[in-house]
Amino acid sequence: MNDLAPLLTPEGRALLDEVRDTDPAQELAVATRLRREHPAELVSAALGQARLRQRAVVKFGAEDAARMFFTPNGVEQSTRASVAAYRARRMADLGITSVADLCCGIGGDAIALARAGIRVLAVDRDPRTAAAARANADALGLAGLVEVREADVTDVDTAGFDAVFVDPARRGGRGRIFDPEAYSPPLSWAVSAARRASRAAALKIAPGVPHEAVPEDAEAEWISDGGDVKEAVLWFGTEPGAVRATLLPGPRTLLSRGLPDPEVRPPGRYLYEPDGAVIRAHLVAEVADRVEGGLLDATIAYVTADALHPTPYATAYEITDHLPFNVKKLKALLRERQVGTLTVKKRGSAVEPEELRKKVKPQGPHAATVFLTRVAGAPAMLIGHPARA
């Protein structure tokens, strides 16, 4: 899709409506039929856009995805709508009324900000991407709040805005970029832009960013949605030095209290698996404190406790068996328990879950979860099931 313009014409929009639910397996037949009445390039563009819209449903929901315009990179790199909406609410709660959205992509964050009543300048240097952002603001009825500008973000004057949001590109020709200074623009530039912001700023970064790379004057927030870690955000103008994990839907936020590492202790009746955002934010100690537990191993983020203390920040499992790692013993135990549905979780183990399933050949009407991990340094298996309050 080199140009969105043909798809924005009445003919293009009608064609998009016609192909929106096309099964990929039927694309060739559909394309052959439509090319009898429409230019081949327009048919290809419409079918390509339909594929992108189908992929975008998971991030934007069916209603918005069916109206929006995407590029392949835009679908891959755009912020999930639930995460963007949460961040926009934080901005609105801070009293922000205008934001310069730098590296706006196809406009996911700009849309969320505008829906929160915030005026947005959305900037991207790629012509196709900027065109998609502009089309999306128009398609969703937000053009009055979103100005899209095709420009290099380093040339944009943000002095007239309450806040700055920067989402640097973290993918290159060879895939993901892990060095923050290799982002486009580099993280150091984004931090400088954030510090110049009138009231506040937010920088979207990879969740695997080293904690030592977080500036001292920034708040660091790790966000998960439905249990999947989505991103980290550096906030300026909020709570310098604060560290938090935010879980969506909710939101539920766990703040660091600077607790020391939990003690290692023998396995108790319950095992707690902290949410990925909690782990990335290094807040396992806060979870252990809440459930009155300790660690199975000093290097692994599994918490164990003797009592059930339900918490949104970790999933609790009731442990029925604790064994040294031994495939034959596990197979025998599962056969005895008639376990046919086996969930395999691992931390600190080199064993691949699928390989283990092939070896133990679970059969039967019951279900179980096995944790492959270490207990005080020794390879171990803990068998149990999700705890019931």
Task: Set down the secondary structure blueprint.
Layout (H helix, E strand, L loop, with lengths): L9 H10 L7 H8 L5 H26 L6 H6 L3 H13 L4 E5 L5 H8 L3 E6 L2 H13 L6 E5 L12 E4 L4 E2 L2 E2 L10 H9 L4 E6 L13 E7 L2 E9 L6 E6 L3 E4 L14 E5 L1 H5 L3 H7 L3 E4 L2 E6 L8 E11 L2 H11 L1 E8 L6 H8 L5 E10 L2 E9 L3
Parallel strand pairs: 1-2, 1-4, 2-3, 4-7, 8-10, 16-17
Antiparallel strand pairs: 5-6, 7-9, 8-9, 10-11, 12-14, 12-15, 13-14, 15-18, 17-18
Helix pairs in contact: 1-3, 5-6
How would you portray this structure in words?
With 389 residues, the protein is α/β, with parallel strands linked by helices. 32% of the residues lie in helices and 28% in strands. It contains 12 helices and 18 strands. It has helices at residues 10-19, 27-34, 40-65, 72-77, 81-93, 108-115, 127-139, 187-195, 276-280, 284-290, 327-337, 353-360; strands at residues 98-102, 119-124, 146-150, 163-166, 171-172, 175-176, 200-205, 219-225, 228-236, 243-248, 252-255, 270-274, 294-297, 300-305, 314-324, 339-346, 366-375, 378-386. Strands 3-2-1-4-7-9-8-10-11 form a 9-stranded mixed β-sheet, with helices on both faces. Helix 1 packs across helix 3 and helix 5 (81-93) packs across helix 6. The longest helix has 26 residues, at 40-65. The radius of gyration is 25 Å and the shape is globular. The model has no long low-confidence stretch (mean pLDDT 94).
